[in-house]
Design brief:
Strand order of the largest sheet: 2-5-8-1-9
Order of helices and strands: HHHEHEHEEEHEEEHEHHHH
Number of helices: 11
Radius of gyration: 25 Å
Distance between the termini: 62 Å
Number of strands: 9
Length: 295
């Protein structure tokens, strides 16, 4: 018992010496094995007060990592699973019906309003399977995320973490519109541990399940405070972005632009070959599509 007590005190002393961000990373590591780049990236939205979108197949711990970040942040959080029948009250708060007398006294009028709750009162929200939400709810939701306001009321939202499945036919999932994706400053792809170049994470996950029985998931303790986030956000202005990095970003964007132009030109050329009256050109077009597009 004495040794156990000393171990607990040592653990608490080590935790006290760690930075809040190191404690947050340790909470992620304790809950999820692997996915190190995603874990590092998930901490950035809290600091920068931006939104993040995670895309990956089921079973890649997208939702689990998002929930751990939300709970460990020490802030008010809201988690929801979106679906085809999601309605605005499920996201924004309960609908209140009010009866009011008309100004001229000639009758009364029944109006409804949203009693702010859920996303409107949360600091961090997790939006699971966001692409499954119907258009009416999705448009209002993304507007709230972008403006951090609902009607004339500001909301305390710091960060939203949305997840979605790939858009392959096997997942029966529709892609988010590019204009919707713009609401998320960080867009990450989460890959399965199996098939990765480094198999150590998959092996560690297998060892965790093989070495000990798995019961309920352990509760995640808060390791941050709002003051930690405020201090970090205030210090963002002190970061000096090197000129080489800025120039590199511009070159990357230029390369992407010319790549899109080249792809469009190539697509038009291949389409013209497919319908060309010249047999060799039709054969080339069919060969290109069969070899490079259908494989």
């Amino acid at each position: 018992a004495a040794a156990s007590g000393r171990g607990i005190r040592a653990h608490r002393g080590e935790s006290a010496r760690m930075t809040p961000w190191a404690r947050l990373r340790r909470a992620l590591d304790a809950a999820v094995i692997g996915h190190d780049p995603v874990k590092r990236a998930l901490i950035l939205p809290l600091v920068c007060r931006e939104h993040v979108y995670l895309e990956g197949p089921p079973g890649t711990a997208k939702t689990r990592m998002a929930e751990v970040i939300a709970r460990a942040s020490g802030l008010r959080f809201f988690c929801t699973q979106l679906h085809r029948d999601t309605r605005l009250p499920e996201l924004l708060g309960d609908v209140i019906l009010e009866r009011r007398q008309l100004p001229d006294g000639g009758g009364e009028q029944i109006q409804h309003r949203i009693d702010p709750g859920r996303i409107l009162t949360a600091d961090v929200c997790v939006l699971d399977d966001i692409s499954r939400a119907p258009g009416e709810a999705l448009n209002v939701l993304l507007q709230v995320l972008n403006e951090r306001r609902f009607e004339a009321r500001s909301i305390p939202l710091v960060c939203a973490i949305a997840t979605g499945n790939p858009t392959d036919d096997s997942y029966a999932n529709e892609a988010l519109d590019p204009a919707h994706l713009d609401r998320f400053a960080l867009q990450l792809r989460v890959s399965p541990l199996l098939g990765a170049a480094d198999a150590s994470a998959a092996r560690a996950l297998l060892d965790r399940f093989a070495d000990a029985p798995q019961g309920e998931e352990r509760a995640v303790e808060a390791v941050l405070t709002r003051s930690d986030l405020d201090v970090a956000y205030a210090r963002l202005a002190e970061i000096d972005v090197p000129r080489e990095l800025r120039d590199g970003l511009l070159r990357t964007l230029s390369i992407c632009l010319w790549a899109h132009v080249g792809t469009l030109a190539l697509g038009v050329l291949i389409a013209a070959c497919r319908v060309s009256p010249v047999p060799p050109l039709r054969g080339f077009g069919a060969f290109w599509v069969t070899t490079f597009r259908n494989t």
